[in-house]
Design goal:
This protein has 448 residues and is α+β, with helices and mostly antiparallel strands. It has 13 helices and five strands. Strand 1 and strand 2 form a beta hairpin. The longest helix is centred in the N-terminal third of the chain and has 76 residues. The chain is elongated and about 175 Å long. The N and C termini lie far apart (193 Å).
């Protein structure tokens, strides 16, 4: 029994890494030391726990002491907020009761100010009265009932606009020229209709608040000088009754050169062919007219043959006194001479006809390329913005127009040249036939 107790005791204390006891007394002493150290550690942990608990209690008490005044301040502020909110509600009720119909008047004033602001946004009179738009914005967005002075000022602005609409005013204003340079210059304002500067029409730029020289000037600019000159009588002037809308639309209308540029490379080729064809046709027409005049003079003077015209050269092949045996070959010689002169009469007609036929084909080519560019733009960007497709559509339409404009005059010129050259050849044939008859008549008489 004693040995079993010793063995059991050794198993229990073996995890404590105790040395092998020499005796039971030594084992009992080791167990007491271990128990004493564990009790000391336990008391130390208990003491530390108590200290931390006391510290947490002190912190909680301190936080409660600090929270008390904050909570009291929050209660005070809430009570003050409720009091002010009640006072605001009472004040608003009192203001509404005192204002009566002034609230409706305030709404009408704001609405009228907003409508007037939208009407005056693009008005030329803003250059003469630049501060009125800001005043209208302030009046339309005000949150208080307007005073009597504000209403009087609004009425004065309306009256000022009506007065200025019937006057011709002169003042200095910033103007942007065609080169993009801004300069101060005298401006003449004919009501809200047109603005003139340096004998040119000016367009109003509401975003920048400046005037700009219109790129496309209307017809009748010569009237501006007479209108601006010192005078005592009335003077004529072209005005825009739409207050700038027509002038703005004119800036969007492309000029002749803009239309030509819209045709692209194909358009340039068509115009070059047209110009070349017209120059050749006019030159050939002038040459045919000169030749026709010379032939006519030669037909009236057959006794003096000259070699500066086809008729003189043709009649010169037979000589002045042909023999009777030569009369049989006379017709052949004249036909040969006429055949030599005919190519010169018809030279260039085929080229002009070719230009007239090629021009519509080039226009069709430009149409096809323009539509291809349009479909490419649709593929890349969709159909949301029509401006992206405008370039291809413009090229398609402009090249078609250019081809027709070039082909139609060239066809008329070709027909004219063909008729002129044919008329000259007919004169040559008639004169040759008459000469043959003239030389055969004596021979016929002798045969009889």
């Amino acid at each position: 029994m004693k040995r079993l107790l010793i063995a059991l005791t050794m198993v229990l204390v073996s995890p404590l890494t105790l040395a092998q006891p020499a005796s039971l007394d030594q084992l009992l002493q080791d167990i007491r030391q271990i128990r004493s150290s564990e009790q000391a550690a336990m008391r130390e942990r208990e003491a530390q726990f108590l200290r931390e608990r006391d510290n947490q209690q002190r912190l909680m008490q301190q936080a409660e002491r600090e929270l008390a005044p904050i909570k009291a301040e929050a209660d005070r502020l809430k009570a003050e907020f409720d009091s002010l909110e009640q006072a605001l509600a009472d004040t608003e009720a009192e203001m509404k009761q005192r204002s009566g119909y002034l609230g409706e008047l305030f709404g009408v004033v704001r609405h009228v100010a907003s409508d007037t602001r939208s009407q005056w946004q693009d008005s030329l009179l803003n250059m003469q009265f630049p501060e009125r738009l800001a005043q209208l914005d302030q009046l339309s967005s005000a949150a208080q009932i307007p005073t009597v002075e504000t209403l009087e000022q609004f009425w004065f602005m309306l009256q000022e606009d009506m007065t200025a609409s019937g006057k011709v005013s002169r003042f200095n204003a910033p103007v942007i020229d065609r080169d993009g340079q801004q300069q101060e210059m005298p401006v003449v304002l004919v009501g809200p209709f047109v603005a003139l500067g340096g004998e040119r029409y000016l367009s109003y730029q509401p975003e920048a608040g400046t005037l700009q020289v219109a790129g496309n000037q209307p017809d009748g600019r010569g009237l501006i000088g007479d209108f601006l000159a010192p005078r005592t009588e009335l003077a004529d002037l072209m005005v825009d009754p739409t207050r700038g809308t027509v002038l703005a639309q004119m800036q969007q209308t492309p000029s002749f050169m803009d239309r030509v540029h819209q045709g692209g490379l194909v358009g340039y080729v068509i115009m070059a062919l047209g110009a070349l064809g017209v120059v050749l046709a006019l030159g050939k027409l002038a040459w045919l007219m000169a030749v026709s005049n010379k032939v006519e003079r030669q037909a009236n003077d057959l006794d003096n043959l000259r070699d500066d015209n086809p008729l003189g050269r043709i009649l010169g092949v037979i000589g002045s006194q042909p023999r009777l045996e030569e009369l049989e070959t006379l017709e052949l010689k004249l036909d040969e001479a006429i055949l030599r002169e005919t190519p010169a009469m018809e030279r260039g007609n085929g080229l002009i006809k070719l230009f007239a036929a090629v021009a519509p084909l080039l226009g069709l080519l430009g149409t096809v390329t323009g539509m291809i560019a349009t479909f490419q733009a649709i593929t890349l960007f969709g159909t949301g913005d029509p401006k992206l497709m405008a370039g291809g559509i413009s090229q398609a339409l402009v090249t078609t127009v250019q081809g027709l404009v070039v082909a139609i005059p060239l066809l008329f010129l070709h027909a004219t040249l063909a008729a002129r050259s044919k008329g000259v050849v007919q004169v040559l044939e008639q004169q040759s036939a008459g000469l043959i008859a003239l030389h055969l008549e004596p021979g016929a008489k002798r045969g009889e």
